[in-house]
Each structure stands twice: as C-alpha cells, then as structure tokens.
Amino acid sequence: MILLIGYLFLLVPGLLTVSRTTALVRNLGDATDGKVDATELVETEIVRWREGEALPARVYRQSATNPATALVFVPGLTPDGIDNPRFVAVARALAKSGYLVLTPDIPALRNFRLEEESIDQIGFWYRQLRRNEEFKARQVGLLGVSVGGTLSLLAVARSPLSRDADFVVCIGGYQSLSRCQSRWFSMAAAQERHGKYPVQFYGRWIAMLMALDALPDANDRVRMRETLEHLLIRGKASTEMPSSAEGARWYRYAVLNETGDDIYALVSTKLERRYRALSAEAELSMVQCPVFLVHGASDELIPPEETEELRRRLSSAEIHLLYTPLISHTHPLIDRLGPLEKLLALGRGLWFLHSLVLTT
CA–CA separation, 171 vs 150, rounded Å? Predict the structure, then answer.
C-alpha cells in the first residue's frame, strides 16, 4: 500500500502536466483558427503611472481561478498593437490554459519604431506583475513575438530589477538588427510573399520609416511616411510619387524595388547607433532563467540564424530550442506540409510545449 501511494505521488503530477500540455495545444490550435471561446475569461483594462506618464495594458485570466503563473506578452511591430486579432486570440488561448496574461500597450511598436524606451516599458510591466498583491502569481515570465521577443530578453538582461524573471519565451526574435537590415535591403529574389511584395520588404519599409529624417524636404517626408505606412498596413502605396528627385528615388525604391544602394547606405548610417543599442550582445549572459526560443524554419523576414546567435549569447541560461516548419514569421504554414513532415513537426512542437508547461 505504501509503495502504491508512492507511485501515485509520482504519477499524478505527470498526468497533470500532460493535461495542461493538452489544453495548451488545443487552445493554441483554436487561436490559429481564430475561434477561442472567451466566455470564461475576465479581460481587464488597467493603467499604471510611470514618471507622470499613463501606461495602459490589458489583463486576461480565467474567472474562477487565481493563476499560479503570470506573463507579460509583448507584440511585435504592428499598428493594431495589443488589439491585433491574432495576438488577442493567442493571449486568450494562454489565459484559457491557466496563465495570467498581461499585454502592455507599447506606443513605439504600434508606430513601427524600435526604441530603447520600449525595453524600459517591458521591464516596468514585468515588475508590476511581480509586485502585484491582487494576483500573487508564484512565477512571472515574459513572452515576446518578433522584435518583442528580443526586447523582452533585453529587458531581463539590462535591468537588475528584472533578472528574477522565471522564464522568457522568444518567438522569431533577432540578434543583430544591422544583419537583418542587410537582408531586408537585398535585391535578391525572395520566395515567401504575403500579397504583392516579398516578406523582406516589410523590414525595408520599417527601416526607411525610422530613417525619414534623412530626407531633406519636409513635404517628401510627409508623403513618404504616408506611403510607407500604407505599404506596411495594406501592402500597397496610396500616394503619388514625390515631386523632388530625392523623394522620387525613395518612392521607387520602396514601391518599385529599383536599385538603391545609396539609400541603403544612408539609412544604415542614420540608424547605426539605434541598431547597436537594440541588438543583443554580451549582456545576454546576464539572463539566468530558462529561455524558450522558437523560430520558423523558413522565416524570410528574420531568418532562423538570428535565434541561433541569440542561443550562443545566452550562455548562463537553460535553453529550450525549437526550429519549426509550422510557421513563417507571422503566418501558419501547416497546410503546406506533407503528412510525414506535418507529423514530425507537430511532435517536436508538442514536446517543446510540454517542456514549457513543466517549467511554468
């Protein structure tokens, strides 16, 4: 009898973990299909003040429970921010799976801008969750998508107040923005397209948008800002070509993919200092919690080599790594896989999620 009780003590936690993994897989599958049932969730808008600035966020959690694990879920560069339908669906899926999920509204990310201030804001929200007396989560971690993944890692690495994070999940992150930009500005033919333009063009447009001050004419800057924002949001240009020669060259490079090596050099010089400040270097050795790295095997916007570079620099962390053909940078690709490839990819993904559940 004592031996049987001992076996039960070993078996029950394992069964609970399998059950939680199964729920997470099911809920994330629903999020992919855009049909997460949120009827049992509580979604709350909150505002916290930091140095006189109001910072809004949204919290998702199950109505009948006080989750043991909380996480800050950081979006990438998207005009919808935390209201992006796919992002909301994943946040709800995570909440249905037993997590408390806080999604911070990061203004720079909504405006297609990469700023060091975003790192500070992510760290601020992590500390709000860590200190929160209402939720009292035993574990608090961070989950970031695309650039939000790397910024989350930097928030832990650069702030002593954030280094007690229990885990970090980075999906499709980068290590070097300069190396990524070189890819975005390449004239080489691309395979992956979502609409009229190759995926890399989205990175090119973001870089050009951040470097618009390099255009000397104010009218050109206004017109090119509108052009680039429409390209990023709608995949097409809505404005006419600027009248000045320099403005017209920027337009043709963005819209028509004409040669623009000098524009690449100009943008690179303009953004060099910012890229250096936002790239993940030796400071990642300060991250000591478990880190879960996920990257689409065929990601053409931020290639999987970037996650490999992150892994090399996370020398003090316990690393869980998944390269998967199931996703590109932002789009699911499961329907493009053959039966065996799909089965193997789903198996590796399931094992990865099981490791995440065991940790969190």
Answer: 9
Both tokens assigned to 228: 């680039």
Helices 116-131 & 261-278 angle (0-180, nearest 10): 30
Which domain, by its residues, includes 240?
187-275
Looking at the structure, tell me whether residues 270 and 293 fall in a common domain. Answer: no
Residue 312 lies in a domain: yes
DSSP code of residue 332: B
Q: How far apart are CA 309 and CA 320, in angstroms?
A: 14
Looking at per-residue confidence, does 187 or 66 come out higher?
A: 66
% helix, strand, coil for the chain, step of 5: 50, 15, 30
Residue 196 located in a structural domain: yes
**How high is the pLDDT of residue 235?**
84
Contact present, 314 and 320 (Cβ < 8 Å): no
Q: For residue 242, give the amino acid letter.
A: P
Each residue of 18-74: pLDDT tens digit? Answer: 788 889 989 988 888 888 888 899 999 999 988 888 999 999 999 867 888 999 999
Alpha carbon distance 356, 169 (integer Å): 9
CA distance 243 to 26: 54
Closest CA to 229 of 46, 79, 76: 79
CB of 142 within 8 A of CB of 152? Answer: yes
Q: How many residues does the chain have?
A: 360
Strand 99-104 relative to strand 69-74, pairing:
parallel
CATH number at residue 59: 3.40.50.1820
